[in-house]
Design the sequence.
């Protein structure tokens, strides 16, 4: 399932996000807060749109890179909320990302699409376009998800 966890010395987790979770509004609904974050780049991966869905997938792809951000200082409970929120078609994996605002690389979890040969993957997913077209409905869906999860 997941690689060895990227856990900080204080016991907190980091997650590289590259799609709908880049929207602070979505993260606030899920976690009740906006954790610290840093812009980051995930090398040798590519972001795709998924036919019939409003969120993206990433897959390993040499020579490509995915921009996103690393959410830091996540608790075990918050990581569990993300695990429940992400579709079962994603595999939580430990990746090494380059932080844009720091010279070092960092380990973080990322949710990688599990089916490399999925015929529904196409093109490039656009975050700004998603914000304009889908954010409002997505926030409503996220609130319903949290109600079903029983809050935390």
Sequence:
């Amino acid at each position: 399932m997941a690689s060895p966890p990227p856990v900080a010395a204080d016991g907190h987790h980091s997650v590289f996000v590259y799609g709908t979770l880049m929207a602070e509004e979505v993260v606030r609904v899920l976690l009740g807060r906006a954790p610290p974050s840093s812009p980051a780049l995930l090398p040798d991966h590519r972001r795709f749109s998924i036919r019939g869905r409003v969120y993206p997938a990433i897959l390993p792809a040499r020579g490509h890179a995915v921009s996103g951000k690393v959410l830091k200082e996540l608790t075990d409970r918050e990581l569990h909320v993300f695990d429940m929120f992400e579709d079962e078609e994603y595999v939580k994996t430990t990746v090494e990302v380059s932080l844009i605002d720091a010279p070092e690389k960092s380990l973080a979890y990322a949710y990688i699409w599990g089916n490399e040969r999925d015929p529904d993957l196409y093109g490039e997913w656009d975050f700004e376009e998603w914000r304009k077209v889908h954010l409002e409905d997505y926030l409503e869906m996220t609130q319903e998800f949290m109600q079903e999860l029983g809050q935390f």
